[in-house]
Amino acid sequence: MRILGQVGRLSPRSDEKLDGNAYLGLTALMGVVGWVPTAYLIHFRTPPPKGVVTLAELGAWAESVTQFSWTIMGLWAALFVGLVLVTVLRVERAALYSVPNVLWAVGMAVALGLNVVGLQLDGLSWLIWIPWLVLFAVGYLVTGVLVTRGWVYHVAAGVSALLVANGAYGVLTNSGCLVVTLNPTVETPLAGAVLLPMPLTYVVIGLLHVVPVGLDALMGGRGTTDAGVPEARADRLDEGDSGGVVPD
Predict the structure, then answer these.
(1) DSSP string, 173-221
(2) Could you write out the three-class secondary structure of 35-64?
(3) Nearest CA to 21 among 3, 48, 4, 33?
(4) N or C: which terminus of the chain carries fewer CB neighbours within 10 A?
(5) Which residues are CB-contacts of 125 (< 8 A; sequence separation ≥ 6)?
(6) Contact of 197 with 129, CB cutoff 8 Å
C-alpha cells in the first residue's frame, strides 16, 4: 500500500519524491498498461479462421496475430515518454541515476526503434518480439548482478535467455510457429515463415516485464536511508556484509 500511495502522489504541487520502490511499481504498472492491450489485440481479438478458408482470410488473420500495429506503437511510445517524464520530474535522484536505470532506458529505446523497423520491412516480424526478449535477458542479468537481493532478476534473465535461444533457433531454421490451416490443400505464401517463437508470445513478454519488477517493488527495500544508501543495502551492511555489491 505504501508503494501505491507513493505512485499516487504525482501532483506537480507535491514536493515529495517517489523512492525506488515506487519507481519499480510504476515500471510494473507501465508494463500492465502496455502489454494487456497489446496481447489482447494480437492474440485474442481475432480468432483463427475455422474450416476451409481462403488465402485472403488466412493472410488477414496471420497479419493480425503476428505484427504490432501503429496504434500499438503509439501506445508504447506514449508510455515510454510518460515514464521518462515522470521519473525525471518525480523520482528521487538516488533511485533514478544508476547503471541499471540507464541500461533499461537505452535498451527500451532501442527495442522500440527495432519494432518500428519490423513494422516497416516485410519478412522481419521477429524484430517485433526478439528485441524485448534480448533486453530482458541482458537487462535483468546486469540488474541482478549490480543490486542487492538480485535473485528475482537472475531468474527472469535465465528464462528470457532460454526464450531468446528458442526464438533465434526458430528464425534460423524456419522451425518456429507456422501459420497453418485445417484444410491441407490450402497453400499460403506465409508457409515456412517464422511468425512467433511460442504461443501467446506477448503474454509471456508482458509477464517477463511485470512480474520481476513488481515482485521486487512488493518486497520493498529499494528506498534510500538518510545517508543515501538503499535500504536493502543498508540492511546487509548492518549484518556485517562488506561484499562488493554495487548499491542499487
Answers:
(1) HT-SBPP--S-TT---TTTT---BSSTTHHHHHHHHHHHHHHHHHHH--
(2) HHHHHHHHHHCCCCCCCCCCHHHHHHHHHH
(3) 3
(4) N
(5) 66, 67, 118, 193, 194, 195
(6) yes
Spatial separation of the C-alpha atoms in residues 194 and 176, rounded to whole Å = 5
C-alpha dihedral, 87 to 92 to 95 to 99, nearest 10°: 70
Pair 141, 153: CB distance under 8 Å: yes
**Which three-class secondary structure state does DSSP give residue 16?**
coil
Measured CA to CA, the distance from residue 117 to residue 127 in angstroms comes to 7
> Looking up cell 500492465, which residue turns up?
32
pLDDT digits (tens, 9 = 90+) for 208-237: 999 999 999 898 766 665 555 555 554 444
- Asked if the model's pLDDT at residue 185 lies above 60, the reply is yes
Contact 176, 196 (CB under 8 A): yes
pLDDT band at 28 (very low <50, low <70, confident <90, very high): very high
Which pTM value belongs to this model? 0.77
The residues pairing with 196 across neighbouring beta strands, listed in sequence order, are: 177
- Cα–Cα separations (whole angstroms), residue 73 to 35, 118, 182, 188: 11, 11, 32, 27
Picking from 211, 234, 151, the residue whose alpha carbon sits closest to that of residue 25 is 211
